[in-house]
Amino acid sequence: FHTLYLTSKGYKVKAIDKSDIALNKLKEHAQKHSLLGNVEIVNCNIKNYKFKESYYAIVCTYVLHFFKKKDYIKIIKNIKSHTKKNGLNFIIVFTKKGELVGNDKFFPFDNNELKSYYKDWEILSYEEKMVETMKQDKDGRRLLHQATIIVAKKK
After folding, report:
1. Are 87 and 154 within 8 A, CB to CB?
2. Ramachandran quadrant class, 113 (left: phi over 0; alpha: psi -120 to 50; beta: rest)
3. pLDDT truncated to tens, each residue of the chain (155 aa)?
4. 136 in helix, strand or coil?
């Protein structure tokens, strides 16, 4: 949980997720570690979320590839426009390379596609690498898939 790490370092965090299960787990862990005061939990699909302010950092991991391209482009633009000057975006998405294929609710990015959306920002880190996913095959082996990881700073 990025939220727990950031709140443990004293940052105030707004955690947005559409999953009641994920949000309840987050709330439990935040309460257990006395961090609930630093986190605002919002149950919402990021596609429908209306930003009311700008942020120093926006973290969006393993989410955007579940949206159709026209929608994830809109979400990225929204995230970028609500990041303060010199603020950071940390995003991880799956690409088309790997073992997660054939899912009609999965719209992976092309190689270098995420980088192209940040050509007007300073790219501090960019990597495309194979990672273990949460999905397993019939033998219990975790499937491998390529992820794109970007950290970009708004100019």
Report:
1. yes
2. alpha
3. 689 999 999 999 999 999 999 999 999 999 999 999 999 999 999 999 999 999 999 999 999 999 999 999 999 999 999 999 999 999 999 999 999 876 677 889 999 999 999 999 999 999 999 999 999 999 999 999 999 999 999 99
4. strand
d(CA 39, CA 109): 30
The pair of structure tokens assigned to 133 is 């996913």
Cα(78)–Cα(147) distance, integer angstroms:
22
- Residues contacting 154, CB < 8 A, separation 6+: 80, 83, 84, 85, 86, 87, 88, 89, 121, 122
pTM of the full structure: 0.91
Q: Where are the alpha helices (DSSP H) in 18-98?
A: 20-32, 69-81
DSSP E strands in the chain: the ranges are 13-17, 39-43, 55-61, 83-98, 122-136, 142-153
